[in-house]
Specification:
This protein is of the alpha+beta class. The protein has eight helices and 34 strands. The strands form nine sheets. It has a six-stranded antiparallel beta barrel. A hairpin with a 3-residue loop joins strand 25 and strand 26. The protein starts with 7 loop residues before the first helix and ends with a strand.
Length: 584
Amino acid sequence: MTKKPLNRKTAKKGVNTKRKKQTKRPNPNSETYNLEEYRQKKQKKQAGNYNVKLNYNRPQQTPPPKAKLRVVEGNNTYSKDKQNPKNPQNAPRRRRKRRFNKAQRDMMISLVGVFLVVFVGVKLAQLYAKPTITYQEVASGMIDNSEIISGIIIRKESVYDSTSTGDVHYVTIEGEKVKKDGAVAVIADNQLISSTQGEIKQLDTDISQVQDKRVDVSDYQQQLYALSDDINTELTKYYKQQDTYTLQNLYSLRDNLDTIIGNKNYIYASDDFQEDWDLQQNRIDLSDKIDSYQNTVVAEVAGTVSYKIDGYEDISLDMDYDTYASLLKEMPDENMQLSASSAVEGEPLFKIIEGYTWEIITYIKTQESLSYIVGEKITITINQKNNMQLTGTITQKTTDEDYTKLVLEVSTNLNDFLSDRKISFSLGDTSAEGLKIPISAIIEKHTLLVPNDYIFMEGGKYGVLQVQNNGTTKFVQVNRQTIGETYTGILQDVNDSSVIQLYDEIKHPETDEIYTVGRIESIQGVYIINDGYANFKKIKIAIDNGEYAILTSDDSTSLKRLDQVITNPKGVEENQLIQNIENK
């Protein structure tokens, strides 16, 4: 049997480390029970623990108040119980809160990490990726956005009725101006006039025979000799050139001879010769009778004469939509015709249009009329006149429930529409022809406006004197985009600090006057790649249809036919080489 090593203390002191068996001494005051009595006594003691006797005479002790926490939220202030962190009951809540805060921190760290990875990936892709472009050659084309509108022409017209019945001989032609009380037409009885003119011719023959037999010298002898020479000249000319005479020449010869003979007969009728006095008086009476057979009609006011009457001359601008629609439906589509060659007493004969202006009344849907403003000028394209374009002024705009009335005043081309009452037209610049490009190719850039006299040429390049921080000046080349009467627009590149920027100071090359660049103008343009790099060219749109645009043909557009235009310029930069761009 092995002995255990001694403890250090016991080893030093030489104490015997063998434990003595201790025995429990009995308590002299304790009672001795047998097992059954002990169990009964213990059960009785446990049952007595539940019999609590309350002493109602003792004062009640109130628990100490709980600590309160003052909370301020906006304008509201309230208190809540302050939890004791050392209270064991709050331990589970603290553990849950720690776990929640840790989860939030982990989530935020994950989100930031994902964002950084995506950001770096995008930047790397932009750094090494090449933009993919498409391009097309510029060609001529046309865009027509016209919406056909119907309208009614209204003029200040006065209709004149015939005062007699007979044949009409128009003195003033259609569309000609006439002054007040000016002759417009003559109404005559042609049968009576023709019969009377035959009698006058017979009298002229009789008077000529009498005059030829007279012996004394007439007061008109020299004039008669001259007329006779004129007759001989015309006849001699005919005989010499009769082989080359045409039918038109014969008609001309006849007219000339009739004129000469008529003048000779007039002299004979005017000559105071006693032997043919009765013949001359008869001729005067017949001439007066012819005057009574014809009636001259004059204009009561000055204006433009028209013989095209349709019965709608008295309509006015004061009409509602229902009246307008009814008139438009009943009016014929064909143009008005000239009045007949004969007149009937009391029937319309002609009309006078006062002034030079005329108006068009139309109704359009109210939602389509929002862009039209009273007083503004607008282009009117007349479809039935081979798309003739007029300039009109909007003088009235009145809303009538779902429709809006527009009145357009025109001060030109009155005569071109004398035969029209109902017309079809379109409003605005709805069609154009010219260079056609896709809308997707158009970009917008900002130019800085610099006074023209600050720009000069040095070394074959245009530039300005930029004022440096130390007060010295430096020549800086500029890219001119627009040139006006006072200012020149130079291209701004915010990514290049070596060029002129907004609020830079420049010096006048002669007067040393300082100008601060502070005005900006936006211009539209496209990138062309004719020379192997992206070159910006300014443009000006004349009209577009949302997909394509027609450009103006003036100096506002620098583009020309066959230029290669980038149709998707997003991501392309000025002066970027084509080798750094992928063509699609």
